[in-house]
Amino acid sequence: MTEFKDLAQMRRSHRKFTEQELSADDVRLIMRAALMAPTSKGQRAWQFVVVDDKQDLEKLADAKDLGAQFLKDAPLAIVVLGDPVQNDCWVEDGSIAAISMQYQAEDLGLGSCWVQMRGRGLSDGTSADTVIRGILDIPENLCVLCVIALGYKADERKPQNEDKLKWENVHIGKFRHD
């Protein structure tokens, strides 16, 4: 297993994937990471939809005007959902689960990319949430946070540059107003 400090430096967003499908074991490990993610009050109230159907992936890519087209070429995507009535921290809990999946994918040598869906949509005013709900038959009480695209990397990304870390954004004790 990679040391976490290296994993965090290596994980980059990938929007280009090979056509190779993910193994069932890899998908299970990715979902295991999501299901083990910390949640508010231990509620574990999120829901996930694993999508590998090519037509559904193409439809998901069209759920918002910008920033999702690469989903058409992803071999797999995971839709992260939450119920705002059941859990007022659904966005935070879903976000933690989503990044947990991304770090697990990186550890497996896979690429991933977060596709923001909450608060996004089409120019005609239709929300991405409504579009995705229709594609995947998601119940009305659940809201879509994001879609995580996953696959084997078709491009190379350099690790995060240590010299570009914004240490000036870290404040010790009190906020510094320089």
Radius of gyration: 17 Å
Average of pLDDT: 96
Into which percentage range does the β-strand content fall? 15-25%
Envelope shape: globular
Stretches with pLDDT under 50, minimum 5 residues: none
Helix content: 25-40%
Lateral arrangement of strands in the main beta sheet:
1-2-4-3
Q: What key phrases describe this protein's structure?
A:
5 helices; 30% helix
Describe the protein's architecture and organization.
By secondary structure, this protein is of the alpha+beta class. Helices cover 30% and strands 16% of the residues. The chain is built from five helices and four strands; from the N terminus they run H-H-E-H-E-H-E-H-E. It has helices at 4-10, 24-35, 54-61, 90-107, 128-136, and strands at 47-51, 76-82, 110-116, 143-152. It has a four-stranded antiparallel sheet with strand order 1-2-4-3, sandwiched between helices. Helix 2 (24-35) runs antiparallel to helix 4.
What's the quick description here?
This protein has 178 residues and is an alpha+beta fold. The protein has helices at residues 4-10, 24-35, 54-61, 90-107, 128-136, and strands at residues 47-51, 76-82, 110-116, 143-152.
Write the layout of secondary structure elements.
Layout: H1 4-10, H2 24-35, E1 47-51, H3 54-61, E2 76-82, H4 90-107, E3 110-116, H5 128-136, E4 143-152
Antiparallel strand pairs: 1-2, 2-4, 3-4
